[in-house]
Each structure stands twice: as C-alpha cells, then as structure tokens.
Amino acid sequence: MFGDMTIELPGGFSGLFKKKKKRGVGIDIGNSSIKIVELEKKEDGIFLKNYAITKVDKEGLIRPGSSKIISNDVGEIVKKIFNDIELKDKNINVAIPSFASLITTIELPPVSEKEIEQIIQVEAPKYIPVPLSEVVYGWEVVNSKQAKDETEDGDSSLLKASRKTPVKVVLASIMKNISQEYEKVFENSGYNIESLEVDTFALKRSMIGAKKGNFLIADIGSCITNISVISNGSVVVNRSIDVGGSRMTDLLSQAMKISKDRAEKIIGSQGLEIDSQDIKKQIMIPLLKNISDDIKKAKEGFEEGYPDSKLESILLTGGFSQMKGLKDFFSNQLGVAVADSNPWENLKYPDKIKDSLKSLSPYFGTAVGLALRGLIEE
Ligand SMILES: Nc1ncnc2c1ncn2[C@@H]1O[C@H](COP(=O)(O)OP(=O)(O)OP(=O)(O)O)[C@@H](O)[C@H]1O
Ligand SMILES: [Mg+2]
Q1: pTM: predicted TM-score of the whole model, two decimal places
Q2: What protein residues have CB closer than 5 angstroms to ion ligand 2?
Q3: What's the pLDDT tens digit per position in 320-347?
Q4: Are 220 and 295 in contact (CB under 8 A)?
C-alpha cells in the first residue's frame, strides 16, 4: 500500500537511499502492438534515447474479463523485442490496463494529510470488494478548486488540519494475482520491473503533466477504449469499454466479405470518408457512437461530481483515434473541442526524426508516461 498511484512491487525499493535516476524505460503491452520508450535525463532536458513499436500478429494478448488477463505468448514476444533493441537500463516500468484495476473516488472527513493514511486503511475495505490482503492499492488526494480556495498560499497539496470540506481521494487497486502475472512475463528476461502502473496514470503524466484545468483523455486502441477525466492533475473519472479498431475491422471484413488486412487498410486510409454510405451509416457511425456515448457518460460523471468545473477539451490517443473524420464526429456529438495529443512535447530528440515521431504520437502516450515515471528520483 502506497500513498502514490504507482503500484510498486514489494522489495524493489529500500527507501534508505535516494536513487539518482538518469534513465527510464516504459513498456506498454497492447493487443495489437508493444511499445517501448527509453529516456535519459541530462542537465539540459529529457532526451529520447530509444523507442520501438512492434506489431503483434497474435490475437488476444490482453484479455478483459478473463481470469488470466495476459496471454502466455507475451513473455516470448517481449524477449524477442529485448533482443532486437539494446536498452541501457535494465529496470522497466510496465503498464497495467485500467480495466484490470479499480479506480474510485472516495470522500473522507476533513483531516490533515498525516491522518489520511490511517483513515484510508479503515475506509478502503468499504470500496474494494475483495479482502485487502488480495490487492495492492494506492491513493492520490484530489486537488479540487474548493480545497485550493481553502489554502491561503494556493498550494492545494497542503492539506491543513483546519480545512472544513471533506477530502476527496482517488483510490486505485489491482489484484495481486494480476501483478504476479506481469512479473511472470518478465521473469528470466534479464529485466527487472521497477514499477507497475495503471495506464491511465502514465497517460496523465505524458499528456497533461503540470497543466491545470479539466481534460478528458480517450485512449482508443485496438480492443479497448479507456476514458479518464483529469481535473487539476488528478484522475477523477475512469472507465473502459472493450471496443476499438479491431471491432471495426471485424465488422467491415464481414460486411464487405474481404480479409481483415484489407478491411484495416480501408479504415486506415478512408475512415469516415469511405465511398459507401451504407458502410458508413450501418457500421462505422454506430461503433463510433458507442464510443462517444461512453465518453459522454464520463463527461457527465465528472460534471455531476464537480458541478463548478467545465471540461477544457477532449484529448485523443491510441491508434484508432487517427481515423479520418473521427475528431469532427466526436466534437459534434459531444459539444467539446477535440484535439490530438503529443507525448513527445517535453522531450528532446534529433530534428530529423520529428516527422516520424509525429506520425507515431497516438501510439506512445502510455510508454512515454511510464518512462517518465522511471526518471522520478525516490
Ligand atoms: N489511420 C487509422 N484509422 C483508424 N484506425 C487505425 C489507424 N491506424 C491504426 N488504426 C488502428 O489502431 C489500432 C491500434 O492502436 P493501438 O496501438 O493504440 O492499440 P493497442 O494499444 O495495441 O490495443 P489496446 O490498447 O486496445 O490493447 C488498430 O486497431 C488499428 O487498426
Ligand atoms: Mg493501448
């Protein structure tokens, strides 16, 4: 149990010595591809040292709703990638999909920061539906506008004993057996898991960073769409559905009686500008509506919990978010500005790779966020 959202593996960190971290490696295992990023911190900034994306042709690498969420094949695939790229840092930060976690906001009575830990131990079992011995959990205090108004110096992280309003805390937990599954994947790989982090928190780090305000992030991948609302740096809403690019590929290949590869190419090149109005109306729009309805639920959940706040914008990431016409479709459906994301924004890299990095932006939000996690000194 840790007062930080990263769910650390036991035994990794002694807490006695300050770690000077120069390198950070992030690994995002997705259903269609595995993304790896290595960063190096120098005096004049954070440098991109290495990045790799490997498409996988096996289906069902990560399986929502299954008792074992990660397929046995992942270990072999990861080992091959490690052989191909030479990472200097053997300590890796790995993402856990948020569907495998429970993220919930709880309200505690007005207490000081010191008391939070004790109170959470009493409150957590009310929100986590399994014995605490079976989970690892972490929390984060929500920096609400109200909390900020109550502190004279404007530093909302300073919780004062005198505060009057309840303290909102985001509680995140994962089952121990899931963290063990991830440990197993990297067993004998020559690499050591430094942290396991729920992907939403990694995305928050690379896409929002220190920005104030309220943003919705939609990560639309091949099998999963993960939606979160970040308010002044805290994850206040999180939900996911098992819909993404591969569902559209399947539906299109069935309807047009073409191979999945061909269907994926048509979606990738034409998107909503497809010639066939029937395909657009009967297949594409209903699936996109499914996703935008879920984004709407997250937006409404946020507005209900934070009635004084308004969403600034919706930030898109994930391969499927590049679909032609999707941004306009979402902004029309939702009435909020929709923008692409740039995970490379605060990194340094050679100018000659600028264009290729730009085209890879939708894929690397989580891996960059994890690598940045690896640079944090403890
Ligand atoms: N231009 C495009 N238009 C529409 N879809 C696209 C485009 N380019 C890639 N995709 C889709 O993006 C998906 C892959 O995205 P991504 O790499 O984010 O998924 P993943 O992380 O592997 O999967 P998940 O997060 O669901 O486990 C594939 O379904 C692919 O068909
Ligand atoms: Mg993904």
Answers
A1: 0.90
A2: 30, 221
A3: 999 999 999 999 999 999 999 999 999 9
A4: no
